[in-house]
Design brief:
Distance between the termini: 82 Å
CATH architecture: 3-Layer(aba) Sandwich
Structural class: alpha/beta
CATH class: Alpha Beta
Pfam families: Elong_Iki1
Number of domains: 1
Subcellular location: Cytoplasm; Nucleus
Number of strands: 9
InterPro entries: Elp5, P-loop_NTPase
GO cellular component, one term: elongator holoenzyme complex
Keywords: Cytoplasm, Nucleus, tRNA processing
C-alpha cells in the first residue's frame, strides 16, 4: 500500500507522515518529493526545519528545477528577518499567491516540513481550517506534511490525522536497515484500509518496501488455540470412561423401535380388519353425470 500511496496523485489529498524521536520520517518525505518531481509536478516546499541543501540532497537532478523552496529555516518566526516564509504566512491566500507567482503556475504539490513547528505557535483548529481551505482551493493538488507526533498531545495529533486522507506512522524495526510503516488510507467512499510494511530509503530517495510477514503470528495463534482446553478446571466431567460409554450404548431409547418391534408391527395379519361404508340418502351413485345434482 505504501508504494501505491507514493505513486498516487489524488486531487485534494492530504498525506500525513508521523514520526518520533526514535524514528525519523524525513527520508520517506523526500521519497514523496522525488516521486512528485518525476511525475512532472511542481513541488512547493515550506521548509521550517531543514535547509534547501538538505532537502534537495539525493533528489533527481533532472527534475529539481520544478522544486520551489520557500525558506523558513533557520528563522521560521521571522525574528531576525532572515527567512522568506514564516509560520504566520501559512494561509490559503499567501500560499496561493506564492504558487501563482511561480514561473509555471498550475496545481502543485505542497510539502510542509514540518507541521509540528506551525502547531507549536498557532491554534491547531485554525491550522486545520487553513489546511482544509488549501485542499479545496484548487491551486493545491496535494498536501504532504511531516508531523512529530511525540511533541504534541494526542488530541492535537488526532484532529490533524482525522483531516488527512492518508496517515503514515513510522517506527523502528528489528532489522538494521528497515523501518516499519503503518499506513492508514481513507478513500472518498469512506472505506478505511490499513497495512503494516517494512521499508528502507536509499541515498537517491528511492523507496523499497517489503511486506511484513504474518506467518509467525498465525502459527503462534494456532498453537494458543490448540493448547487451550475448555474442559479444564470444571466441577463436573464432560468426558465418558470406556465403561460408561458401553453402558450408554446398551440403554434403549424410549422412542426408538428395536428391529423385533418393527418386524412385529409391519408383519401383515390377514382378516384382522375391514371397512364398512353405509351410504347416505344424499349420495349420488350416477356415474354418467356426477354433477346432476347441481342443477347446472
Amino acid at each position: 500500500m505504501l508504494l501505491d500511496v507514493l505513486q498516487a496523485a489524488e486531487a485534494g489529498g492530504f498525506t500525513l507522515i508521523q514520526d518520533t524521536v526514535k524514528c525519523s520520517g524525513r527520508g520517506i518525505l523526500k521519497c514523496f518529493i522525488n516521486a512528485a518531481l518525476k511525475r512532472g509536478e511542481d513541488v512547493h516546499v515550506l521548509g521550517f526545519e531543514a535547509s534547501e541543501t538538505e532537502v534537495c540532497a539525493g533528489l533527481d537532478n533532472s527534475c529539481v528545477q520544478k522544486l520551489y523552496f520557500h525558506k523558513g529555516f533557520p528563522d521560521p518566526l521571522g525574528w531576525m528577518c532572515r527567512s522568506s516564509f514564516t509560520v504566520d504566512q501559512l494561509t490559503s491566500q499567501h500560499i496561493t499567491k506564492l504558487i501563482k507567482d511561480a514561473q509555471h503556475a498550475k496545481a502543485s504539490v505542497l510539502v510542509i516540513d514540518s507541521l509540528s513547528f506551525v502547531l507549536r505557535h498557532h491554534d491547531p483548529v485554525v491550522i486545520c481550517q487553513r489546511l482544509q481551505e488549501l485542499r479545496k482551493g484548487g491551486d493545491i493538488k496535494m498536501i504532504i506534511s511531516l508531523l512529530h507526533s511525540d511533541l504534541h498531545l494526542q488530541g492535537v495529533v488526532g484532529i490533524v490525522s482525522h483531516l488527512a486522507s492518508t496517515v503514515i506512522s513510522v517506527a523502528p524495526a528489528n532489522y538494521e536497515h528497515h523501518t516499519v510503516a503503518m499506513t492508514t488510507r481513507r478513500t472518498k467512499s469512506g472505506k478505511v484500509m490499513q497495512e503494516e510494511e517494512y521499508f528502507s530509503v536509499s541515498e537517491d530517495a528511492t523507496l523499497s518496501v517489503q511486506a511484513k510477514s504474518r506467518q509467525s503470528g498465525h502459527v503462534q495463534k494456532e498453537q494458543d488455540v490448540a493448547e487451550a482446553d475448555p474442559t479444564t478446571n470444571l466441577t463436573f466431567n464432560l468426558r465418558l470412561s470406556e465403561e460408561e460409554r458401553k453402558a450408554k450404548e446398551k440403554v434403549a431409547l424410549p422412542f426408538v423401535f428395536s428391529q423385533e418391534k418393527k418386524s412385529a408391527l409391519l408383519r401383515p395379519t390377514p382378516g384382522s380388519g375391514r371397512i364398512v361404508y353405509e351410504p347416505d340418502a344424499s349420495d349420488d351413485f350416477d356415474e354418467e353425470d356426477p354433477d346432476d345434482d347441481l342443477d347446472v
